[in-house]
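[step 3/7] inverse_fold.run input=structure_tokens len=395
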């Protein structure tokens, strides 16, 4: 029997590769002659680079500015002329010194430095995976690293961070790295939020980055000012009016609010095309080919909830598996979806670790052992389904 294991990380507990090891052990207790194929997956956010490296990309490490300016070790993935840039490796929440959040001052500058490294490596296509960011700067820091100057009314360059955008008066795009005009940029994002407003980057994601209610109001206004000034200053082949209209449309676009507004800068200035993160990763890692001849696929992540239905890893895996006629099973830390919702999403059976260990702290501490037990519980259903399919095919 061949089982494909394509799981995302269990955040705070295990990487996708560690999850796969635990699943393999559990299945092996019940399924004789088990064969497995492990396919690294992620949703375009944290874990995207690791999935790419596991799929054969090579890593290039460099020192970049962290979210509050301190140097951190970042890396990009390279394969041929394709580069994978994961924002979280340079501008992520997990990189904040001492875990101290800086809602107004955090920057995406280091992400821009990673993009420069990709350009230096002669990449012709850059996949920008966003998610887990510490900043709400609209991607301004990323643009600064790429040569854009953000100026106040006196012509002084602004300090980094979203808070400073409230005093932005002019955007000088003359220094923007010209190589960006000759490459393709894909924004891999799994959120649909616009840049500003009640559903925007500051309002929805600002609090998890340390923003108070006052900070959220300030940052939302600062991002709106950024979009307004950028629209006035956009040149190229566009007239000033057309530039303003185009930038305003990008600010309202689905995904513009991703990673504190980095999605907006990628769309408006880098000319990025937005795709669902999970679709980008599944193509990179070759899940479709791995499903050929498989009897089942097991996927999973920490939580299966309504947000998962909007494009998280398990749903993406389930959708692709359905097109290949391969039954899908899932293991998750917890699920907030009912049996009918899980079935409608394409899952034959789901086991949540909370069923085995209700205490969250103990569940996270013993995640590997619990996932092994959960996989063992899935094995009978996998065997039964495979046997039924074999009989049906023979008939």
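[step 3/7] decode complete -> sequence:
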């Amino acid at each position: 029997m061949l089982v494909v294991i394509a799981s995302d990380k269990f955040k705070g507990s295990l990487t996708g590769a560690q999850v796969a090891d635990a699943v393999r052990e559990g299945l092996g207790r019940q399924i004789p002659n088990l064969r497995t194929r492990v396919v690294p997956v992620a949703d375009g956010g944290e874990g995207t680079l690791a999935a790419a490296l596991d799929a054969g990309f090579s890593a290039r490490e460099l020192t970049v500015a962290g979210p509050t300016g301190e140097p951190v070790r970042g890396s990009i993935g390279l394969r041929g002329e394709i580069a994978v840039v994961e924002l979280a490796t340079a501008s992520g929440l997990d990189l904040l010194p001492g875990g101290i959040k800086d809602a107004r001052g955090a920057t995406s500058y280091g992400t821009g430095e990673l993009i420069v490294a990709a350009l230096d490596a002669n990449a012709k296509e850059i996949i920008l995976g966003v998610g887990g960011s510490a900043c709400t700067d609209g991607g301004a820091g990323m643009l600064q690293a790429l040569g854009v100057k953000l100026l106040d009314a006196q012509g002084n360059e602004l300090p980094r961070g979203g808070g400073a955008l409230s005093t932005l008066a002019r955007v000088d795009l003359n220094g923007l790295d010209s190589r960006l005009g000759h490459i393709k940029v894909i924004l891999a994002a799994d959120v649909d939020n616009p840049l500003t407003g009640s559903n925007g980057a500051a309002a929805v994601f600002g609090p998890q980055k340390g923003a108070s209610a006052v900070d959220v109001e300030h940052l939302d206004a600062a991002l709106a000012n950024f979009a307004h000034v950028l629209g006035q200053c956009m040149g190229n082949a566009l007239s000033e009016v057309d530039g303003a209209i185009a930038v305003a449309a990008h600010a309202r676009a689905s995904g513009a609010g991703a990673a504190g507004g980095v999605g907006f800068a990628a769309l408006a200035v880098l000319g990025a095309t937005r795709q669902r993160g999970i679709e980008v990763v599944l193509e990179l890692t070759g899940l479709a080919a791995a499903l050929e001849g498989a009897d089942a696929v097991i996927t999973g992540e920490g939580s299966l909830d309504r947000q998962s239905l909007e494009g998280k890893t398990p749903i993406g895996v389930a959708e692709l598996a359905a097109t290949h006629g391969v039954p899908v099973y899932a293991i998750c830390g917890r699920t907030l979806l009912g049996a009918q919702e899980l079935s409608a999403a394409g899952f034959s059976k789901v086991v949540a670790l909370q069923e085995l260990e209700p205490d969250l702290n103990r569940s996270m501490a013993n995640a590997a052992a619990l996932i092994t037990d959960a996989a063992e519980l899935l094995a009978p259903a996998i065997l039964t389904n495979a046997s039924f399919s074999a009989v049906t095919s023979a008939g």
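[step 4/7] annotate
Residues 390-395 have pLDDT under 50 and may be disordered.
Residues 367-394 form the longest helix (28 residues).
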